[in-house]
Specification:
The structure holds 2 protein chains of 2 kinds.
Chain A (H helix, E strand, L loop, with lengths): L11 H33 L4 H50 L2 H7 L1 H8 L1 H17 L1 H16 L4 H45 L1 H6 L3 H53 L5 H43 L19 E8 L9 E8 L4 E5 L6 H7 L8 E6 L2 E2 L5 H6 L1 E4 L8 E2 H5 L8 H10 L3 H6 L7 E2 L8 H14 L4 E5 L7 H14 L4 E6 L10 E6 L2 E6 L1 H7 L1 H10 L2 H6 L1
Parallel strand pairs in A: 3-10, 3-11, 6-9, 9-10
Antiparallel strand pairs in A: 1-2, 1-4, 4-5, 7-8, 11-12
Chain B lengths: L1 H7 L11 H5 L7 H12 L3 H48 L12 H7 L2 H4 L4 H9 L10 H50 L10 H43 L1 H48 L1 H6 L3 H53 L5 H43 L20 E8 L8 E8 L4 E5 L6 H8 L7 E6 L2 E2 L5 H7 E4 L8 E2 H5 L8 H10 L3 H6 L7 E2 L8 H15 L3 E5 L7 H15 L3 E5 L3 H6 L2 E6 L2 E6 L1 H7 L2 H7 L6
Parallel strand pairs in B: 3-10, 3-11, 6-9, 9-10
Antiparallel strand pairs in B: 1-2, 1-4, 4-5, 7-8, 11-12
Helix pairs in contact in B: 3-13, 4-8, 4-9, 4-13, 5-7, 8-9, 9-10, 9-13, 10-12, 10-13, 12-13, 17-19, 19-20
Classes of the chains: A alpha/beta, B alpha/beta.
């Protein structure tokens, strides 16, 4: 939590002003019982009407002054709190955008999203509450104690006892209840889980006739949840009546003891009445302060998670002395080994191969064989652990990331789109592209047909994440997006998987002309996709086990043959 | 998916909910009365407890309300005695030296000795007091009287606290039982609904009923009812008390409060709008963050960081704008109530003082009145808010009831046919079916399958291949025509019995959070260890299980992602092996399985199919070619059927589908 405080720095003046206003506001409400005491002691007892009216007027002025201070303070705390979270959100987003895939994966997408949204909201809420309520509490508490103490020092201890009793009660309740709150949350999650599994497995459950088993399972969690909920609720209902009791008994104690002081002439009646009100203010202030201790742990978890993002160090940086890589985009892997940080076993061992311009290089292998990792090293989503990746003879680490990526057309397995229009998506890598370029890219990517069927054509709306388009359509738009860049290097990371055979074929026909002079690297699962590649790299468990053309590999690469056999029958292998 | 659902279910923390609920502005139910009536019906089994709760609440509230008044009387007593002391001291101090008053001298006696012109300067009420004072000894505060009253007061407070606690204790019991019951009913309902229902419902919606909606209803039942009772009684009680003290002061209080009401309702209305806007912008920014993070690699690959940041900043500014406004306005609520309260306080102090001087009011009454005034605002805001709470509760309850009232699956017939030994002949006879009445998915479909045959169902995705499977398992019923197993209409059998005849292995593997063993003997918990091992061996997954640190007792985690897709598939095959059904339904895995596992899966499936009537949703050519019958489906229609070679010769849809795979590129 403390680490985030530096983002409050721009507001330091406003915070000071806020403090001043809070002070004024507290002083105003503290002054009221004083004046009331005056009315009682001097006005009523001495039968002085003029004094009562005079004091009343002062009270109104004080109240209005306090009100003004309160409103401005409220304005300031809202401004500061939300401004703080705005800045924080901005800094976090910027930081995440500067992450490489490696740092990104350390957190996982879902967790980063929560950190950038929910966690910041949590912190904002606490900051605002802090400013609005908790800031005034200590001032109010201390002020009231001083005032009360001046009036009747011999009775101050009553407030002390009341506060101690109340706080003890709260602490005990929370010590008992807080672990149970966590348990309740866990059980709710569990209930959710069981229900979700029931929903997703509805067919299987019906097929195996295990409804009763599932109902029992649910019932157990449901019973546990009910039991623990009951316990927590019954603990928490103690709070309200006991609090009231403490308040009331405090008042009684003040009256009883106050009466004795009055009897011996040490106290005036009006002062006793004012004392009662101060006592209430003191107790309420301490209750407010205790809220901090409930809120802070929750917020500090969020703050901690935000700090982790902000403090994460970046590994993939631009070179200090960038070099320019001139050429047609030849990609060379030289003894590349790669392992994820903290992993014992490398994902790639000693990989060396060359992908030449004008040629298609295909990479094949089972899941987990490391084929996607290979292509991720080219645009520096990750950096090699040892060895080099060279583009036109220059190590990718020596090229500015921006320049490097400008030369690469990367098409991921899942066609990722952004909200906007079809046009804005195709133009994503080059916002200055002309109408003609967009149309041409769409044509090559076989996207023209379905786009033309849309009501608004290229201006059709794309929903968040492209959810209003099918997998195949998204993939084609992702391909168009890369084509428009006219890159030297194409990377297809299993990008044809969602296309039907017909489209797949036409697309590859068109790509042939477009990519004539480019380096094309294809990662694929389907052997059909790579039968005619100029070079096939076969991977198994992170090692290259074969390089060559389809027919050569069939002859001399065991693993390749295994893969081919599982996908094509003998006859089809010949048919080809 | 799962992480989305998790963030959607808002985490409720302990206590201190504050006033946020009031600001949000709830959704409205369609039929408030009907829903409330049903909700009250749920309370009727607990009638006795509820009556006790109501009585306890009333007693506890009334006792609390009496407090300040009695306290005020004590103060009055003190004030009275105090004034006597003051008077005594004034007079005794002014007596000439050496003179002592004889025993039994009263104020009356003294006043007689005072010249009348002096008396006329003293106010009448002060004179009355002096008359009754016994000047022979110094008066003192009457602690015996006060002490008794205080004891009474302590008694009242204790009883009130106890009743209030008991009331809460009983009510939480009732509401927890009702919540438990509702959750149970919802889950049971899930299993009684036809699968069709879930075609148009996301899992999130159903989940939010079982957690959020039940929670909302429980909260209101727990606090809402007693809160309403105590609030109303408090308001009435305080009014009575105030009137009994002084009508003029009461008038001031009653006039001041509506002013605060005007402010409050203005703020609530305004800030509800702002909160809505803030909520919407928040959703925008969350959506944008989600999108950009999900496309992180693409943003990087296409150098889009700066643009992403720019758009983010503009949404962020929007959010800030609505956020500070709504925070500011909603934050004003309490201060304004405070201010109005303070104004009333001043008015009462001044007016009370004036009244006291004129002997129409006593000091203790002012004190009591101020206390009542302070207690007045809270129940009033609560009552004002109760409509909101009731509305959103009714909306939640309505969603639950609607769900519970959804049309259930047609019941099994009364005297079902039970097949002793299943051979596995399956016949579709003129079957017609559509998920929606106006969209026929399968029209006039007839086919006879002999026991032990293999049927491949082929076609592009979304063609409706799974529909046939759904009909066969009676997840859905045909619109017209008949499906027969061993010559008997499946509608004449119990659903349970039909489903026992089939084993299912779906591409969408379903494993649950539990041990591997539990997942395999799912539905057959009585199988022996050796049978399980035999099944896993046949499914080629035995080796994999042994490679796990805990073997068969390895726990599959909540997201079922601690084992790979292929291994999951093998486990579900083992599950079907153990089940040993006469017929099979298979959905072949298409992608994301590494080649070696794929070979294992294929082998396992072949073993499983041997000698059983099998329906395969096929993607692999080897499976298709060996099939006894291929059904080619496109756009919900069966376009071709026959064997592989026949269909190729026909040179139709199947042939083009088949050939397109091997075109040169």
């Amino acid at each position: 939590m403390l680490k985030l405080l530096k983002y409050l720095k721009p507001y330091i003046l406003l915070i000071l002003l806020l403090l001043g206003l809070t002070y004024a506001q507290v002083m105003a409400s503290l002054a009221l019982p004083d004046y009331m005491a005056k009315i009682v002691n001097e006005g009523i007892v001495n039968q002085d009407q003029a004094l009562i009216w005079r004091t009343g007027l002062t009270m109104i002025l004080v109240t209005l002054g306090g009100a003004l201070a309160t409103v401005i303070a409220g304005y300031l705390s809202a401004k500061i709190g939300t401004g703080f979270s705005k800045n924080l959100r901005k800094v976090v987003f910027k930081k995440v955008e500067s992450f490489s895939t490696e740092e990104f994966n350390n957190f996982s997408t879902a967790s980063l999203i929560t950190r950038s949204t929910n966690d910041i909201q949590q912190v904002q809420m606490v900051v605002i509450i802090l400013f609005r309520m908790v800031l005034s509490a200590p001032i109010m508490g201390i002020g009231a104690v001083i005032k009360a103490n001046n009036m009747a020092p011999s009775m101050t201890w009553i407030m002390g006892v009341a506060v101690v009793v109340l706080l003890t009660m709260i602490i005990v309740l929370f010590v008992v209840a807080v672990p149970k709150f966590k348990l309740v949350q866990e059980l709710i999650d569990k209930l959710n889980l069981v229900t979700r599994q029931n929903l997703t497995g509805l067919k299987v459950i019906k097929a195996f006739n295990t409804e009763d088993y599932e109902k029992d399972k649910f019932d157990n969690v449901n019973k546990d949840l009910t039991k623990i909920n009951l316990f927590v609720h019954r603990i928490m209902v103690i709070m309200q009546p006991t609090m009231m009791l403490v308040f009331n008994l405090t008042t009684i104690a003040i009256i009883w003891i106050g009466a004795h002081r009055i009897n011996v002439g040490e106290l005036q009646i009006g002062d006793m009445m004012a004392f009662m009100q101060y006592a209430m203010q003191v107790i309420i202030s301490f209750l407010m302060i205790s809220i901090i201790f409930i809120l802070l742990p929750r917020a500090s978890v969020s703050a901690q998670r935000i700090s982790e993002v902000l403090e994460a160090s970046l590994h993939i940086l631009d070179p200090k002395k960038p070099k320019k890589a001139m050429g047609q985009g030849q990609v060379v892997f030289k003894n590349v080994t790669f392992s994820y940080p903290d992993a014992d076993v490398p994902v790639l061992y000693n990989i060396s191969f060359t992908a030449k311009p004008g040629e298609t290089t295909a990479i094949i292998g089972g899941t987990g064989s490391g084929k996607s990792t290979i292509v991720n090293l080219i645009p520096r989503f990750f950096d090699v652990t040892s060895g080099e990746v060279l583009i036109d003879g220059v190590n990718v680490k020596d090229i500015k990331k921006k320049d490097l990526r400008r030369r690469i057309g990367y098409i991921p397995q899942k066609g990722v789109l952004f909200s906007g229009t079809i046009k804005s998506n195709i133009k994503y890598g080059k916002p200055t592209a002309t109408e003609h370029e967009v149309l041409e890219a769409a044509r090559v990517a076989q996207a023209t047909e379905f786009i033309s069927k849309l009501e608004n054509g290229y201006d059709s709306h794309v929903a968040q994440g492209g959810s209003n388009f099918s997998g195949g359509q998204k993939q084609r738009l992702a391909i168009a997006r890369a084509i428009l860049l006219n890159p030297d290097i194409y990377i297809f990371d299993d990008s044809f998987s969602a296309l039907d055979f017909e489209t797949d074929y036409k697309l590859r026909e068109e790509l042939k002309t477009i990519t004539k002079n480019s380096t094309v690297i294809i990662v694929a699962q389907r052997i059909g996709t790579m039968l005619h590649a100029d070079k096939i790299v076969v991977l198994d468990n992170g090692r290259i086990v074969g390089v060559g053309k389809h027919k050569e590999l069939l002859k001399n690469c065991e693993i390749y043959r295994e893969i081919a056999n599982s996908q094509l029958s003998e006859k089809e292998l010949e048919y080809e | 998916m799962s992480s989305r659902e998790k963030t959607n279910t808002t985490r409720r923390g302990p206590g201190f909910g504050g006033h946020r609920g009031m600001m949000r502005g709830g959704e409205k139910p369609k039929d408030f009365k009907k829903t409330m009536k049903r909700l009250i019906e749920y309370l009727s089994p607990y009638k006795k407890s509820v009556i006790v709760v109501i009585i306890f609440a009333i007693v506890s509230t009334v006792f609390t309300i009496l407090g300040p008044r009695i306290l005020g009387n004590i103060t009055n007593q003190i004030a009275d005695d105090y004034v006597n002391i003051v008077v005594y001291e004034q007079i005794v101090d002014n007596l000439p030296q050496g003179i002592t008053l004889p025993k039994g001298t009263t104020g009356d006696d003294i006043l007689k000795m005072v010249p009348p012109e002096m008396i006329s300067e003293v106010p009448q009420n002060r004179l009355d007091k002096i008359k009754n004072v016994d000047f022979s000894q110094k008066p003192h505060i009457q602690f015996d009287v006060i002490g008794k009253t205080i004891l009474l007061l302590i008694g009242l407070y204790l009883v009130s606290g106890l009743f209030s606690y008991l009331q809460g204790w009983i009510m939480s019991g009732v509401t927890q039982k009702i919540s438990y019951d509702l959750r149970k009913k919802i889950l049971n309902k899930i299993h009684r609904l036809p699968l069709k229902y879930f075609d148009n419902q996301t899992h999130g919606e159903v989940l939010s009923r079982i957690t959020n909606d039940v929670d909302t209803v429980g909260q209101t039942l727990n606090q809402g009812m007693t809160q309403m009772i105590t609030s109303v009684i408090t308001i009435l009680g305080i009014l009575v008390m105030m009137l009994s003290i002084n009508w003029l002061l009461t008038l001031v209080a009653v006039v001041v409060l509506p002013i605060s009401f005007v402010f409050i309702s203005f703020i609530v209305k305004k800030s509800q709008k702002l909160f809505k806007r803030q909520q919407d912008t928040l959703a925008d920014i969350n959506g944008y963050v989600e999108e950009i993070y999900a496309g992180h690699n693409i943003v990087k690959a296409f150098n889009g960081e700066k643009r992403a940041l720019k758009k983010f900043n503009s949404i962020n500014e929007d959010l800030h704008d609505s956020a500070w406004k709504s925070q500011f306005l909603s934050g004003l609520l309490f201060p304004i109530m405070d201010i109005v309260g303070n104004v009333a306080y001043v008015a009462i102090a001044v007016l009370g003082g004036w009244l006291a001087i004129n002997n129409k009011l006593m000091i203790g009454d002012i004190q009591a009145f101020i206390q009542y005034m302070r207690q007045f605002t809270q129940p009033i805001t609560q009552v004002a808010n109760i409509t909101n709470v009731l509305q959103s509760t009714a909306a939640a309850a309505e969603r639950i009831f609607e769900f519970l009232e959804e049309q259930e699956e047609v019941e099994d017939i009364k005297n079902p046919v039970v097949l002793e030994a299943v051979k596995g002949d399956v016949e579709f006879d003129n079957v017609k079916f559509g998920y929606e009445p106006d969209q026929v998915v399968i029209k006039d479909f007839s086919v006879k399958v002999k026991a032990g045959q293999q049927i491949a169902i082929v076609g592009p995705t979304g063609a409706g291949k799974t529909t046939l499977v759904n009909l066969l398992m009676r997840f859905y019923d045909v619109d017209s025509g008949v499906i027969k197993i061993d010559g008997i209409d499946i509608r004449d059998m119990k659903r349970e019995d039909i489903r026992k005849m089939f084993g299912m292995v779906l591409q969408d593997t379903w494993l649950f959070n539990g041990t591997i063993k539990e997942n395999i003997d799912y539905g057959n918990p009585n199988k022996s260890e050796s049978e399980i091992i035999q099944a896993t061996k046949n499914a080629h997954v035995d080796y994999f299980i042994h490679s796990l640190p805990e073997g068969y007792d390895t726990i599959i985690n909540e997201e079922a992602d601690n084992i790979s897709q292929g291994e999951k598939q093998l486990l579900t095959i083992a599950r079907a092996m153990l089940d040993n059904p006469p017929m099979l339904i298979l959905d072949e895995a298409t992608s994301s399985v590494d080649t070696r596992t794929e070979i294992l899966i294929q082998k396992a499936m072949e073993k499983l199919m041997k000698g059983r009537t099998t329906f395969v949703i096929a993607h692999r050519l080897s499976t298709i070619k060996r099939a006894d019958l291929i059904l080619v489906i496109d756009k919900g229609d069966i376009v071709e059927k026959g064997k592989h070679d026949e269909l190729l010769k026909k040179n139709g849809f199947y042939a083009s589908l088949y050939n397109s795979q091997f075109k040169e590129s």
